[in-house]
Amino acid sequence: MKSTSVNDQTLSVEVYENLQKVFADFQIRAEKLGQAYSRMQEDFKKVNLELDKKNLELAKSLSKREEIQTYLSSILESMDSGVIGVDVSGVVTQFNSAAAQITGYSIQEVLNKPYCEVFDSSQQSDCELLMTLSAEQGRSRDERVFWHKDGHPVPVSYQTAILNDCTGKKIGAVEIFSDISKLKAMEKEMQQSRTMVALGEMSATVAHEIRNPLGAMGVWAGLLERDLEPGDPRIRTLGKITEGLSRLNKIVSNLLVYTRPVTTEFCKLDLLDLVEEVVDFTEIEIERLGYAIRVEKKFNRDEKYYVLADPEKMSQAIMNLCLNAVQAMDRGGTLEVVLERGKRANAGCFGFSIIDTGIGIEQDALSKIFDPFFTTKENGTGLGLAIVKKIVESHFGHIDISSVVGTGTVVEVFIPYLKD
């Protein structure tokens, strides 16, 4: 029994010693674990600081990118040139305000839509932007016609280019274009000016070379008529010859008037007096011709219509317009003559209108009605309205015309009024 107790004690000591060793080992490991945890916390703090730093840098980068994007968008929107960008599939990704103004399409109608779906490729000559995309080659500055949404052509100067990302990969194409309608109009005016100079030089030669023979022919015709007995049928033939000579002389005279600079002698006059005088003469001409035309005068005789004008030139212009209206109503009608202060865009002017109920003018002819040598009359010279326009413009005014076939024509002349 005693021996067993000694063994038990020995076992207990060994267990105790083992426990101490295990506990000491546990403490060592716990210390190491604590040190590792501390290091991990330090590392975690460093990672957090690094993440905060990276997040701040990213925020700054995004802010800078947004700022650059806003800056570039502002540039695009402030450009006078239209910009259309498409991705590799031909979908519109960029469309600025200038492009909307030139094409007539709103930005909402175009963005994120296939280019060919929005712009009719059958109308857009050669579809340059999509051709650039497929050929992967830009087009240097050139000119072409872009069709507006409402159907009218707009001449543009344009260029195209391929868009690549930072790695050189193709991401789309862009077209930059400008409306050159005004430039084309100026070129046309310059061409007309050059033509007028050449025409003026030719007119001087024509007047010299033709008028003298015309005068001689008129004298000979007069001599022949004097030698013929009254009732001779050849007198009628001579009358036709004289009439033809007179018409040729009128053409030459009108040609000289049109090609020479308009010399005006301005003076203060009441436009109402001038208009009434011309209308009175027109009524006499209507009676002579025997036309069933009623003349309506719409003037405010209590008001003064003072302008600075050349009485002779202005009278010629008004007379030409009135006689044109009469000739358009050979089967009868109403000639309405209106004089009033201009409204809206024509404020600061007196508006003189001649309205007839004649045969009217075709819409295709209206755009050319003031061009020299263009006429809708069988025996017209095509210089009457051209001279009227030139006279009106020499008085710093302008002239408009509108017409409906079978209904009649309205001609409006606007002349700046003289301020008191």
Explain this structure to me?
With 420 residues, the chain is an alpha+beta fold. It folds into four domains: 1-78; 79-179, Beta-Lactamase (2-Layer Sandwich), CATH 3.30.450.20; 184-259, Signal transduction histidine kinase, dimerisation/phosphotransfer (DHp) domain (Helix Hairpins, Orthogonal Bundle), CATH 1.10.287.130; 267-416, Histidine kinase-like ATPase, C-terminal domain (Heat Shock Protein 90), CATH 3.30.565.10. Helices cover 53% and strands 21% of the residues. The protein has eleven helices and twelve strands. A five-stranded antiparallel sheet has the order 2-1-5-4-3, sandwiched between helices. A five-stranded mixed sheet has the order 7-9-10-12-11, covered by helices on one side. β3 and β4 (153-164) form a beta hairpin. α6 packs antiparallel against α7 (234-259). The chain is rod-shaped and about 185 Å long. The protein starts with a helix and ends with a strand. The model has no long low-confidence stretch (mean pLDDT 80).
Let me know the largest β-sheet: 5 strands, antiparallel
Head-to-tail CA distance between termini = 149 Å
Strand content: 15-25%
**What is the CATH topology of the largest domain?**
Heat Shock Protein 90
One letter per element, helices H and strands E, the order comes to HEEHHHHEEEHHEHEEHEEHHEE
